Amino acid sequence: MAIDLTVVTPEGQAFQGEVESVVLPGVEGDFGVLTGHEVFMTSLRPGEMQVELPSETQRAAVSKGIAEVHEDNVTVMVGSCEFAHQIDVDRAKVARDRAQKQLEEMRASGEDEEALREYQETYSRAIARVVVSEKFKS
Predict the structure, then answer these.
(1) Among 29, 22, 130, which residue's Cα sits nearest to residue 82?
(2) Residue 119, SS3 per DSSP
(3) How far, in Å, CA of 100 to CA of 10, rounded?
(4) Domain spans of the chain?
(5) Residue 14 burial (CB count, 10 A)
(6) What's the whole-number mean pLDDT along residues 8-26?
(7) Which residues face 75 on adjacent strands?
(8) What is the mean pLDDT of residues 73-100?
(9) Bridge-partner residues for 137, per DSSP?
(10) CATH class of 3-84
C-alpha cells in the first residue's frame, strides 16, 4: 500500500504522487509517516523532507508550514519546497553565509525578538538548502 503525498507552496504544487514513506521536519523533531499512520496535524520547521519512492529517495529543503496526515494521505503546505536537484549549491552557501552574518549583527544590536526570529528562520532555511544539496551531490 502506498501513501498519497501532496506538497503545496504559494507558487503551486511542488510534488504529488504515491510514496512508500515520508520524513518531515516537525517543530518538535523529525517524524516519519508510513501507511496506516495515525491521523494528526502538526507544524513544520525549516528543514529536510525525505521522500521514499519505490526506486529512489528524494530529498527537499522545505520552509515552515503544516502537515496533515489522514489515513494514507499526507498533505504538506509550506512556504517553499526545493528538491535537491533544483538547488544551486554555491548560491545556497552564499545565502547561508549572508543569513548567518545578518543574524549575528541583529543579535549584537539587540533587535527585537520578532525580527530576530525572522532572521533565524531565514538562516535555518539556508542551512536546509545547503544540507540537502550536498546530500544530492554525494
Answers:
(1) 130
(2) helix
(3) 26
(4) 3-84, 88-137
(5) 19
(6) 97
(7) 6, 68
(8) 92
(9) none
(10) mainly beta
Res 137 pLDDT > 80? no
Q: What integer pLDDT is reported at residue 138 of this predicted model?
A: 57
Report the amino acid identity of residue 90.
Answer: D
d(CA 116, CA 108): 11
Contact 47, 5 (CB under 8 A): no
Mean pLDDT of the residues in the chain: 91
The shares of helix, strand and coil residues in the chain, as percent rounded to the nearest 5, are 35, 40, 20
Q: 36 and 20 in contact (C-beta within 8 Å)? A: no
Q: Are 130 and 96 in contact (CB under 8 A)?
A: yes
Chain position carrying cell 532555511 = 125
pLDDT digits (tens, 9 = 90+) for 51-85: 999 999 999 999 999 999 998 999 999 999 999 99
- Mean per-residue pLDDT, 119-127: 87
